[in-house]
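To the wet lab folks,

You asked to see what we're planning to order before we commit. Fair enough. Below is the target structure as C-alpha cells, and below that is the sequence we designed to fit it. If anything looks off to you, flag it before the synthesis order goes out.
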C-alpha cells in the first residue's frame, strides 16, 4: 500500500495509476495530519485473471465435465484408497 498527499498524487498520477494497475493500493491523504481521504485501485489489475476470464482460443467445456467420476477416482477424491 502506498500513501501519498493530494499534491503528490496530482504530480505523479500517471505513475500511481500504473502501480494500481499492477495490484497496489494507493491511499491519498489530506491535511497536516495526513488523513486518508481516497483510495486508488485498479478495477481489473493487470496480470490477475479470474476464472472465466480466460482468453484461450479453442477451450471447450464438454458434457463429459458434468458426468459422474468413475468409482475408483471418486473414492480417491473422497478420502478412500491410497
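Sequence we intend to order:
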Amino acid at each position: 500500500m502506498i500513501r501519498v498527499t493530494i499534491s503528490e498524487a496530482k504530480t505523479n498520477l500517471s505513475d500511481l495509476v500504473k502501480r494500481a494497475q499492477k495490484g497496489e493500493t494507493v491511499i491519498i491523504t489530506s491535511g497536516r495530519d495526513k488523513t486518508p481521504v481516497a483510495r486508488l485501485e485498479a478495477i481489473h489489475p493487470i496480470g490477475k485473471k479470474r476464472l472465466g476470464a480466460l482468453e484461450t482460443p479453442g477451450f471447450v467445456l464438454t458434457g463429459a465435465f458434468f458426468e459422474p467420476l468413475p468409482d475408483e477416482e471418486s473414492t480417491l477424491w473422497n478420502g478412500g484408497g491410497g
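Structural context that might help your review: The chain has a mean pLDDT of 85. The helical segments are 6-11, 13-21, 71-77.

Thanks,
Computational group
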